[in-house]
């Protein structure tokens, strides 16, 4: 009889590796904050140098990247899958994204009052032309100008809305400061006021309330869980994990979830929390 034993720990290491592989396939793989992503978004240093930051770029910087294929075996039964893109995706192959199951897209339009996406027309119109419901987003920089000014800039450069069943409300992307104090040097009350000014101005200009994109940790740190936007603004929560987790203050339901920053689709990976007809209803205001 062969009684030679395996080296101590070898079996455990093999089991752990197999478990990690299975979880990676089923739920996506997370990589450390600061690492590069293969989803078409460049490293932080490039985004910083160009003053052009993607939605979730600072979520990944602080909490880590995640790659995940379009989920098929977990999550609620009624969801719609989509993506958000920026100039870093260039001329997007929208037909392939549609064929892979994407049914909505958000396109970066602006950042602060100093940046306009040069690929906006191709991305915004191209997604629409293949049948997707699409919208635009604005990367907020509360340390440069006030919320009213940035909302106007957003609307003036692609961020508007129309009741055509194919245009989603514009989204305010509010997350960690790419450079400097994480809350942009504002007090918690000041941050709530900045967001409120943006939201009210956007509503007055576009006729619909903007979606608010954020991460629970940032919202807690930078608003102090002050202010309640739940009666007006749909929530787009960022969490690169297999579940949506705890939602930012006062929201009890999310509308969108950005669950990974690379995967099946160009750019970041998102889902709408509802059936397709509810997504159409959101587009109709």
UniProtKB/TrEMBL annotation:
<dbReference type="GO" id="GO:0009253">
    <property type="term" value="P:peptidoglycan catabolic process"/>
</dbReference>
<dbReference type="GO" id="GO:0042742">
    <property type="term" value="P:defense response to bacterium"/>
</dbReference>
<keyword id="KW-0081">Bacteriolytic enzyme</keyword>
<dbReference type="InterPro" id="IPR017853">
    <property type="entry name" value="GH"/>
</dbReference>
<keyword id="KW-0326">Glycosidase</keyword>
<dbReference type="GO" id="GO:0016052">
    <property type="term" value="P:carbohydrate catabolic process"/>
</dbReference>
<dbReference type="Pfam" id="PF01183">
    <property type="entry name" value="Glyco_hydro_25"/>
</dbReference>
<feature type="compositionally biased region" description="Low complexity">
    <location>
        <begin position="34"/>
        <end position="43"/>
    </location>
</feature>
<dbReference type="InterPro" id="IPR018077">
    <property type="entry name" value="Glyco_hydro_fam25_subgr"/>
</dbReference>
<dbReference type="GO" id="GO:0016998">
    <property type="term" value="P:cell wall macromolecule catabolic process"/>
</dbReference>
<dbReference type="GO" id="GO:0003796">
    <property type="term" value="F:lysozyme activity"/>
</dbReference>
<dbReference type="GO" id="GO:0031640">
    <property type="term" value="P:killing of cells of another organism"/>
</dbReference>
<keyword id="KW-0964">Secreted</keyword>
<comment type="similarity">
    <text>Belongs to the glycosyl hydrolase 25 family.</text>
</comment>
<feature type="compositionally biased region" description="Polar residues">
    <location>
        <begin position="47"/>
        <end position="56"/>
    </location>
</feature>
<keyword id="KW-0929">Antimicrobial</keyword>
<feature type="region of interest" description="Disordered">
    <location>
        <begin position="34"/>
        <end position="56"/>
    </location>
</feature>
<keyword id="KW-1015">Disulfide bond</keyword>
<keyword id="KW-0378">Hydrolase</keyword>
<comment type="function">
    <text>This enzyme has both lysozyme (acetylmuramidase) and diacetylmuramidase activities.</text>
</comment>
<dbReference type="InterPro" id="IPR008270">
    <property type="entry name" value="Glyco_hydro_25_AS"/>
</dbReference>
<protein>
    <recommendedName>
        <fullName>Lysozyme</fullName>
        <ecNumber>3.2.1.17</ecNumber>
    </recommendedName>
</protein>
<keyword id="KW-0732">Signal</keyword>
<dbReference type="InterPro" id="IPR002053">
    <property type="entry name" value="Glyco_hydro_25"/>
</dbReference>
<dbReference type="GO" id="GO:0005576">
    <property type="term" value="C:extracellular region"/>
</dbReference>
<feature type="signal peptide">
    <location>
        <begin position="1"/>
        <end position="35"/>
    </location>
</feature>
